[in-house]
Structure formats: structure tokens, C-alpha cells
Amino acid sequence: MAGHSKWSNIKHRKGRQDAKKGKIFTKISKEIFQAVREGGDNTETNNNLRLALDKARQNNMPNENIDRTIKKATGNLEGVTYVEKTYEGYAPYGTAVFVEALTDNKNRAAAEVRLAFNKNGGNLGEDGCVSFMFDRRGHVTAEIPEERDEDEMMLTLIDAGAEDVQFFEDGLEVLCSVPDFQQVHEAVKQLEGVSVYSAELAMIPQTKTPVSEAQYEEVMQLIEALEDCDDVQSVAHNAAVE
Questions:
Q1: What's this model's pTM, rounded to 2 decimal places?
Q2: Which of 87, 111, 135, 196 is most buried per CB count within 10 Å?
Q3: pLDDT in tens, 155-172
Q4: How far apart are CA 163 and CA 141, in angstroms?
Q5: Cα–Cα–Cα angle for 148, 152, 158, nearest 5°?
């Protein structure tokens, strides 16, 4: 039941993101812009740009949007400087929340994040209050056919560097180290009949806080409110349905 709920939540989150393509494109454009400004426009040497472009393609971002963002970033335009910020706190029921933002106005970003916490039963904490509960890891989710050889898939992914592989009724979740992420991502894409949902470097919780389905919905109200903040790029939490 827990596994079914987890995959249902993954699909729900993907569907919600698909429904807000405009906002997703804006967030990805900022990632591309910042990556180019910091490391240039060569994907062979700029890993952050390669990851941002992968995310753009996963979300079917038009090539003209991508090209325009790269041209802006390489054109030495004045007046736009993004700063990476993180925020930490708690959702209802003691759930740890870690927020990553990319903003050109730190005061605005902090105010929006604080408001989201306050309006949805959470508490914004001090730096370091929950970050030790998460690790940066490669995270890939994908839709897979009902008829599949899980043992063969598992061996293929482990050979590529996967550290944890979970199968669901029609889905797959893979975790790996940061250095192995690109290789694992490619291995998932090469699996027969597989369609990648998401592939990213994410903050993954070391342990989970058990909650009921009703409590999980309350937690997700805060998570979704944070994700709706213009400056927020990603939100991690450690809630899990019992």
C-alpha cells in the first residue's frame, strides 16, 4: 500500500507540474541562465547547464525558449543577477522541509517563503535545522510497462551505478550518487518501453516521517504553496504515508 501511495504521489506531482508549464518554463529558464552565466554555454564542460537542459527537455520546453535564454545569458546583459538561497523548516506533523531558491531579490524570496510556511501550518526555521537530514543524490523516476523483467532491469541499473531501485505497478524510482547520475539517467532511458518522468539532482531524506494519508495531504498543501513561489526552484520533504 505504501509503495502504491508513493508512486501515486509521484504521478500526481508530475501531473500538477504539467498543468503549470508556464511557471515551470520560467523556473527552468532561470536555471539555464544562471548555469551559462557561471560556467559558459558548453555542455561538455558545464555540468549544471547540461542538467538544466535535460530538465527543459523532460518538460517539453520549446527550443526557441531555451535558445533565447542562452543568448541572453551570453550577451552580457546588465541588471540580472540570480543568487542561490536555501530555506529550512517544518511542515505539519514534524515533517522536515528543505527549499532551494534562485532569486534576484533575496528579501522578496524570503518573504514569500515565510508567508507560505505561515499560511499552511508550517514553521520556517534557522539555517541548518533540517539540512543534515537530507543528502544530495541523483533521482530518476519513469513509467515502465506492466510486463517487464525486473531482475534484468535491476542488474542493468546497478551496473550503471544505481544505489537503490524501487518498482511499482507501472513505475520505477532510482537513486544514485551525484557522480553516477548522468550514467544512470542514460541507462534508464535505454530500458525498453520506459518513459522518463523526471531526472534531477535532488535533496533526498535519510529517514522518513510517517504520516496518514489525510496528514500527507496537509503537508502537501505547504509543499505546493512553496513550489508556487516564483523564486523557489525545488522543495524536498521527508513525509511518507504509513
A1: 0.82
A2: 87
A3: 999 999 999 999 998 899
A4: 14
A5: 125
